[in-house]
Design a protein that fits this description.
With 163 residues, the protein is an all-alpha fold. It has a domain at 2-108. Helices cover 88% and strands 0% of the residues. The protein is built from four helices and no strands. It has helices at residues 2-29, 33-55, 60-80, 85-156. The termini are far apart.
Length: 163
């Protein structure tokens, strides 16, 4: 989900940036403050999206917050300026924030599974070491028993004369 959020965010963010840049340029050319302000908010949103996309893989929680802030800015900017497309971009931003949330949950689940595997591997290693120590002790005991039997056999055998 994080990779999908990254790809969608970058592609849609490019469209948001181009549209906002055009709205700002048209607003400045026509000397209307609302279009210029809406375009500036859109450019700011696009920059927030860029940062959020950069953080969606390593830090999806921060990405979620940035997308949510951009969404609120977009909805507020769309309702207060003539650049009403910001409302749509704000909703898209909130959808990307939800995607980032699911990406966070997926990453957390993956980390939990990895931690469980590591704990199981550590337990298996400890059990193997314990079994190896038991086998070594058993082998040492068997060698001692064999040495005692050999000593008893040599002690009970009559001496052989060599003529």
């Amino acid at each position: 989900m994080r990779i999908a959020t990254l790809i969608l965010g970058l592609i849609l963010g490019a469209f948001l940036f181009i549209q906002s840049l055009a709205a700002a340029a048209i607003g400045d050319a026509a000397n209307t403050e609302d279009d210029g302000a809406g375009g500036a908010l859109g450019i700011f949103m696009a920059l927030l999206w860029l940062v959020a996309c950069g953080l969606v893989i390593p830090a999806p929680r921060i990405s979620m917050a940035l997308f949510a802030v951009a969404g609120l800015i977009g909805i507020a900017g769309g309702s207060s300026t003539d650049f009403t497309d910001l409302t749509i971009w704000g909703v898209v931003s909130l959808v990307l924030a939800v995607f980032s949330f699911f990406g966070y949950r997926g990453k957390r689940t993956l980390q939990i599974k990895e931690r469980i595997k590591e704990e199981q591997a550590a337990q298996m290693l400890a059990q193997n070491q314990q079994m190896a120590a038991q086998l070594a002790a058993q082998n040492q005991w068997q060698q001692q028993m064999w040495a005692q039997q050999q000593a008893q056999q040599t002690a009970t055998q009559p001496p052989t004369s060599s003529l």
